[in-house]
Amino acid sequence: MGNLFARFGTGLGALIVGLVAAWLVSMVLAPNLMMLDFSLRPNLMPAQIGGLDDHYTLANFAALAGDPVHRVIFLKTIWASALVMVTTLAVTYPIAYWMAKVASPRAAALAVMALIIPFWINEVLRTLAWYILLAFGGPLNAALLWLGIIDQPVRWFGDFGVLAGMVYAYILFMLFPIYNSISTLDTVQIEAARNLGASTPRIHWRIVIPHAKAGIATGCVFTFMLAAGSYVAPALLGAPGSRWFTEIIYNWFFEGGNWNRGAAYALVLLTLYMLVVLATLKLFRVNLADVAK
Fold it and tell me: Which of 91, 111, 187, 284 is most buried as measured by Cβ atoms within 10 A of its Cβ?
Protein backbone atom coordinates (compact mmCIF):
# COMPACT_ATOMS: atom_id res chain seq x y z
CA MET A 1 0.00 0.00 0.00
CA GLY A 2 2.95 2.28 0.62
CA ASN A 3 3.99 1.82 -3.00
CA LEU A 4 0.46 2.77 -4.08
CA PHE A 5 0.59 6.07 -2.17
CA ALA A 6 4.12 6.75 -3.41
CA ARG A 7 3.07 6.23 -7.00
CA PHE A 8 -0.28 8.01 -7.09
CA GLY A 9 -0.01 10.39 -4.15
CA THR A 10 -1.95 10.46 -0.91
CA GLY A 11 -5.24 11.74 -2.33
CA LEU A 12 -5.53 9.49 -5.39
CA GLY A 13 -4.07 6.53 -3.50
CA ALA A 14 -6.66 6.92 -0.74
CA LEU A 15 -9.41 7.16 -3.36
CA ILE A 16 -8.26 3.93 -5.02
CA VAL A 17 -8.06 2.12 -1.68
CA GLY A 18 -11.50 3.42 -0.73
CA LEU A 19 -13.07 2.30 -4.01
CA VAL A 20 -11.53 -1.17 -3.70
CA ALA A 21 -12.68 -1.45 -0.08
CA ALA A 22 -16.19 -0.29 -0.98
CA TRP A 23 -16.35 -2.84 -3.81
CA LEU A 24 -15.16 -5.67 -1.55
CA VAL A 25 -17.63 -4.78 1.20
CA SER A 26 -20.66 -4.24 -1.04
CA MET A 27 -20.08 -6.97 -3.64
CA VAL A 28 -18.25 -9.70 -1.69
CA LEU A 29 -18.57 -9.35 2.08
CA ALA A 30 -22.16 -8.10 2.41
CA PRO A 31 -23.80 -10.70 0.10
CA ASN A 32 -21.96 -13.55 1.80
CA LEU A 33 -22.89 -12.29 5.26
CA MET A 34 -26.52 -12.04 4.16
CA MET A 35 -26.35 -15.57 2.77
CA LEU A 36 -24.87 -16.79 6.06
CA ASP A 37 -27.69 -15.10 7.98
CA PHE A 38 -30.30 -16.70 5.71
CA SER A 39 -28.71 -20.14 6.04
CA LEU A 40 -28.86 -20.02 9.85
CA ARG A 41 -32.56 -19.14 10.02
CA PRO A 42 -35.59 -21.37 9.43
CA ASN A 43 -37.87 -20.87 6.47
CA LEU A 44 -40.82 -19.00 8.02
CA MET A 45 -43.97 -17.33 6.85
CA PRO A 46 -43.81 -13.50 6.82
CA ALA A 47 -46.01 -13.32 9.92
CA GLN A 48 -43.61 -15.57 11.84
CA ILE A 49 -40.47 -13.50 11.13
CA GLY A 50 -39.29 -11.90 14.35
CA GLY A 51 -41.31 -14.33 16.47
CA LEU A 52 -40.30 -17.15 18.78
CA ASP A 53 -39.49 -19.48 15.90
CA ASP A 54 -37.17 -16.96 14.24
CA HIS A 55 -33.82 -17.99 15.74
CA TYR A 56 -30.50 -19.26 14.53
CA THR A 57 -30.31 -22.96 13.81
CA LEU A 58 -28.18 -25.48 11.92
CA ALA A 59 -31.21 -27.33 10.60
CA ASN A 60 -30.62 -26.21 7.01
CA PHE A 61 -27.10 -27.64 7.04
CA ALA A 62 -28.25 -30.80 8.80
CA ALA A 63 -30.84 -31.26 6.04
CA LEU A 64 -28.08 -31.80 3.49
CA ALA A 65 -26.37 -34.38 5.68
CA GLY A 66 -29.68 -36.12 6.31
CA ASP A 67 -30.88 -36.20 2.69
CA PRO A 68 -29.22 -39.19 0.95
CA VAL A 69 -30.17 -38.01 -2.54
CA HIS A 70 -28.77 -34.50 -2.14
CA ARG A 71 -25.72 -35.87 -0.36
CA VAL A 72 -24.96 -38.22 -3.25
CA ILE A 73 -25.44 -35.41 -5.77
CA PHE A 74 -23.07 -33.19 -3.78
CA LEU A 75 -20.39 -35.89 -3.65
CA LYS A 76 -20.89 -36.64 -7.33
CA THR A 77 -20.48 -32.95 -8.17
CA ILE A 78 -17.14 -32.96 -6.34
CA TRP A 79 -15.61 -35.91 -8.18
CA ALA A 80 -17.20 -34.95 -11.51
CA SER A 81 -15.77 -31.43 -11.21
CA ALA A 82 -12.38 -32.96 -10.42
CA LEU A 83 -12.75 -35.13 -13.53
CA VAL A 84 -13.53 -32.02 -15.60
CA MET A 85 -10.43 -30.36 -14.13
CA VAL A 86 -8.14 -33.32 -14.89
CA THR A 87 -9.56 -33.78 -18.40
CA THR A 88 -9.18 -30.09 -19.19
CA LEU A 89 -5.59 -30.18 -17.92
CA ALA A 90 -4.80 -33.21 -20.10
CA VAL A 91 -6.30 -31.50 -23.15
CA THR A 92 -4.76 -28.07 -22.66
CA TYR A 93 -1.23 -28.90 -21.47
CA PRO A 94 0.01 -30.17 -24.88
CA ILE A 95 -1.64 -27.20 -26.60
CA ALA A 96 -0.08 -24.73 -24.16
CA TYR A 97 3.36 -26.28 -24.59
CA TRP A 98 3.04 -26.29 -28.38
CA MET A 99 1.97 -22.65 -28.42
CA ALA A 100 4.73 -21.56 -26.03
CA LYS A 101 7.73 -23.57 -27.25
CA VAL A 102 7.05 -25.22 -30.61
CA ALA A 103 4.77 -23.05 -32.73
CA SER A 104 5.95 -20.01 -34.60
CA PRO A 105 4.62 -16.64 -33.39
CA ARG A 106 2.21 -16.54 -36.32
CA ALA A 107 0.91 -20.06 -35.70
CA ALA A 108 0.53 -19.35 -31.98
CA ALA A 109 -1.40 -16.14 -32.71
CA LEU A 110 -3.70 -18.00 -35.10
CA ALA A 111 -4.28 -20.70 -32.49
CA VAL A 112 -5.14 -18.09 -29.86
CA MET A 113 -7.60 -16.43 -32.23
CA ALA A 114 -9.18 -19.78 -33.11
CA LEU A 115 -9.66 -20.49 -29.41
CA ILE A 116 -10.91 -17.05 -28.42
CA ILE A 117 -13.35 -16.28 -31.26
CA PRO A 118 -15.94 -18.94 -30.22
CA PHE A 119 -15.96 -17.40 -26.75
CA TRP A 120 -17.31 -14.16 -28.16
CA ILE A 121 -20.64 -15.98 -28.11
CA ASN A 122 -22.68 -16.26 -24.93
CA GLU A 123 -22.08 -19.38 -22.83
CA VAL A 124 -25.72 -20.42 -23.15
CA LEU A 125 -25.51 -20.32 -26.95
CA ARG A 126 -22.25 -22.25 -26.94
CA THR A 127 -23.83 -24.89 -24.72
CA LEU A 128 -26.86 -25.04 -27.03
CA ALA A 129 -24.43 -25.65 -29.90
CA TRP A 130 -23.15 -28.70 -28.01
CA TYR A 131 -26.77 -29.72 -27.42
CA ILE A 132 -27.32 -29.73 -31.18
CA LEU A 133 -24.02 -31.52 -31.82
CA LEU A 134 -24.80 -34.30 -29.33
CA ALA A 135 -28.48 -34.63 -30.24
CA PHE A 136 -29.91 -38.02 -31.20
CA GLY A 137 -30.13 -36.90 -34.82
CA GLY A 138 -27.22 -34.48 -34.60
CA PRO A 139 -24.00 -34.17 -36.60
CA LEU A 140 -21.95 -36.41 -34.27
CA ASN A 141 -24.24 -39.40 -34.63
CA ALA A 142 -24.61 -38.74 -38.37
CA ALA A 143 -20.81 -38.74 -38.83
CA LEU A 144 -20.31 -41.89 -36.74
CA LEU A 145 -23.07 -43.69 -38.64
CA TRP A 146 -21.58 -42.65 -41.98
CA LEU A 147 -18.14 -43.90 -40.92
CA GLY A 148 -19.65 -47.17 -39.74
CA ILE A 149 -18.37 -46.78 -36.18
CA ILE A 150 -21.85 -47.20 -34.69
CA ASP A 151 -24.90 -49.11 -35.95
CA GLN A 152 -27.54 -46.83 -34.46
CA PRO A 153 -27.62 -43.33 -32.98
CA VAL A 154 -26.24 -42.98 -29.45
CA ARG A 155 -27.78 -40.80 -26.77
CA TRP A 156 -24.79 -38.72 -25.68
CA PHE A 157 -26.62 -36.62 -23.11
CA GLY A 158 -25.76 -37.31 -19.50
CA ASP A 159 -22.37 -37.53 -17.85
CA PHE A 160 -20.49 -37.56 -21.16
CA GLY A 161 -22.37 -34.57 -22.50
CA VAL A 162 -21.79 -32.56 -19.33
CA LEU A 163 -18.09 -33.47 -19.31
CA ALA A 164 -17.60 -32.51 -22.97
CA GLY A 165 -19.54 -29.27 -22.61
CA MET A 166 -17.66 -28.18 -19.50
CA VAL A 167 -14.21 -29.02 -20.86
CA TYR A 168 -14.98 -26.88 -23.88
CA ALA A 169 -16.57 -24.10 -21.82
CA TYR A 170 -13.63 -23.71 -19.43
CA ILE A 171 -10.68 -24.65 -21.64
CA LEU A 172 -9.32 -21.09 -21.78
CA PHE A 173 -9.25 -20.80 -17.99
CA MET A 174 -6.81 -23.70 -17.92
CA LEU A 175 -4.94 -22.98 -21.15
CA PHE A 176 -3.83 -19.39 -20.68
CA PRO A 177 -2.35 -19.70 -17.15
CA ILE A 178 -0.32 -22.74 -18.25
CA TYR A 179 0.71 -21.04 -21.49
CA ASN A 180 1.85 -17.92 -19.63
CA SER A 181 3.94 -20.01 -17.22
CA ILE A 182 5.57 -22.17 -19.89
CA SER A 183 6.33 -19.14 -22.08
CA THR A 184 8.62 -17.79 -19.34
CA LEU A 185 10.73 -20.97 -19.35
CA ASP A 186 14.08 -20.53 -21.07
CA THR A 187 14.18 -22.85 -24.09
CA VAL A 188 17.90 -23.39 -23.49
CA GLN A 189 17.04 -25.53 -20.45
CA ILE A 190 14.93 -27.86 -22.58
CA GLU A 191 17.60 -28.09 -25.27
CA ALA A 192 20.30 -28.78 -22.68
CA ALA A 193 18.25 -31.59 -21.13
CA ARG A 194 17.62 -33.09 -24.55
CA ASN A 195 21.32 -32.89 -25.45
CA LEU A 196 22.17 -34.70 -22.22
CA GLY A 197 19.91 -37.58 -23.24
CA ALA A 198 16.75 -36.84 -21.28
CA SER A 199 13.59 -38.27 -22.80
CA THR A 200 10.60 -36.08 -23.64
CA PRO A 201 8.48 -37.32 -20.70
CA ARG A 202 11.40 -36.74 -18.32
CA ILE A 203 11.95 -33.22 -19.67
CA HIS A 204 8.32 -32.36 -19.00
CA TRP A 205 8.27 -34.03 -15.59
CA ARG A 206 11.53 -32.56 -14.30
CA ILE A 207 11.70 -29.19 -16.07
CA VAL A 208 8.52 -27.94 -17.72
CA ILE A 209 5.90 -28.99 -15.17
CA PRO A 210 7.84 -27.74 -12.10
CA HIS A 211 8.37 -24.41 -13.85
CA ALA A 212 4.69 -24.15 -14.82
CA LYS A 213 3.27 -25.33 -11.48
CA ALA A 214 1.87 -21.91 -10.59
CA GLY A 215 -0.01 -21.74 -13.91
CA ILE A 216 -1.22 -25.32 -13.53
CA ALA A 217 -2.44 -24.59 -10.00
CA THR A 218 -4.24 -21.45 -11.20
CA GLY A 219 -5.91 -23.31 -14.06
CA CYS A 220 -6.96 -26.18 -11.81
CA VAL A 221 -8.48 -23.83 -9.23
CA PHE A 222 -10.40 -21.84 -11.83
CA THR A 223 -11.61 -24.89 -13.73
CA PHE A 224 -12.75 -26.78 -10.65
CA MET A 225 -14.63 -23.81 -9.21
CA LEU A 226 -16.32 -22.99 -12.52
CA ALA A 227 -17.27 -26.63 -13.08
CA ALA A 228 -18.62 -27.14 -9.55
CA GLY A 229 -20.61 -23.90 -9.81
CA SER A 230 -21.88 -24.47 -13.33
CA TYR A 231 -25.61 -24.57 -14.01
CA VAL A 232 -26.08 -24.16 -17.77
CA ALA A 233 -24.10 -27.21 -18.93
CA PRO A 234 -25.69 -29.72 -16.51
CA ALA A 235 -29.17 -28.30 -17.15
CA LEU A 236 -28.90 -28.51 -20.95
CA LEU A 237 -26.56 -31.45 -21.52
CA GLY A 238 -27.31 -33.58 -18.47
CA ALA A 239 -29.76 -36.39 -17.94
CA PRO A 240 -31.96 -37.10 -14.90
CA GLY A 241 -29.16 -39.26 -13.51
CA SER A 242 -26.51 -36.59 -13.97
CA ARG A 243 -27.90 -33.77 -11.86
CA TRP A 244 -25.49 -31.16 -10.51
CA PHE A 245 -25.48 -29.67 -7.00
CA THR A 246 -26.08 -26.20 -8.44
CA GLU A 247 -29.37 -27.45 -9.86
CA ILE A 248 -30.45 -28.40 -6.33
CA ILE A 249 -29.53 -24.91 -5.11
CA TYR A 250 -31.45 -23.34 -7.98
CA ASN A 251 -34.50 -25.46 -7.15
CA TRP A 252 -34.45 -24.40 -3.50
CA PHE A 253 -34.27 -20.72 -4.42
CA PHE A 254 -36.59 -20.44 -7.41
CA GLU A 255 -38.87 -23.48 -7.35
CA GLY A 256 -39.06 -24.58 -3.72
CA GLY A 257 -39.11 -21.02 -2.41
CA ASN A 258 -36.84 -21.99 0.48
CA TRP A 259 -34.09 -19.39 0.32
CA ASN A 260 -32.75 -20.44 3.72
CA ARG A 261 -32.11 -24.01 2.61
CA GLY A 262 -30.69 -22.77 -0.70
CA ALA A 263 -28.33 -20.38 1.12
CA ALA A 264 -27.10 -23.21 3.34
CA TYR A 265 -26.41 -25.43 0.33
CA ALA A 266 -24.65 -22.53 -1.42
CA LEU A 267 -22.42 -21.96 1.62
CA VAL A 268 -21.47 -25.61 1.64
CA LEU A 269 -20.42 -25.25 -2.00
CA LEU A 270 -18.49 -22.08 -1.16
CA THR A 271 -16.68 -23.92 1.64
CA LEU A 272 -15.78 -26.61 -0.86
CA TYR A 273 -14.25 -23.95 -3.12
CA MET A 274 -12.07 -22.68 -0.29
CA LEU A 275 -10.89 -26.17 0.63
CA VAL A 276 -10.02 -26.95 -2.99
CA VAL A 277 -8.02 -23.72 -3.30
CA LEU A 278 -6.06 -24.48 -0.12
CA ALA A 279 -5.49 -28.11 -1.13
CA THR A 280 -4.32 -27.12 -4.62
CA LEU A 281 -1.91 -24.53 -3.26
CA LYS A 282 -0.56 -27.12 -0.81
CA LEU A 283 -0.26 -29.80 -3.50
CA PHE A 284 1.64 -27.59 -5.95
CA ARG A 285 3.56 -25.81 -3.17
CA VAL A 286 2.61 -22.35 -4.36
CA ASN A 287 1.08 -19.38 -2.56
CA LEU A 288 -1.65 -16.94 -3.46
CA ALA A 289 0.91 -14.41 -4.72
CA ASP A 290 2.14 -16.95 -7.30
CA VAL A 291 -1.42 -17.68 -8.43
CA ALA A 292 -2.26 -14.00 -8.72
CA LYS A 293 0.64 -13.26 -11.08
Answer: 284
How many domains in the chain? Answer: 1
Helix (H) or strand (E) holding 118, with range, is: none
Of the chain, the percentage scoring pLDDT greater than 90 comes to 44
94 within domain boundaries = yes
Domain that holds residue 278: 68-292
Q: For residue 72, give the CATH number of its domain.
A: 1.10.3720.10
Are 112 and 106 in contact by the 8 Å Cβ rule? The answer is no
Residue type at position 123: E
Q: Phi and psi of 136, rounded to 5°?
A: -60, -40
DSSP character string of 145-167: HHHTS-SS----TTHHHHHHHHH
Answer for the pair 129, 165: CB distance below 8 angstroms, yes or no: no
Is 1 within the bounds of a domain?
A: no
Q: Which amino acid is residue 259, in one-letter code?
A: W
The mean pLDDT value for 67-88 works out to 93
| 125 domain residue, yes or no | yes
Rounded mean pLDDT, 43-53: 78
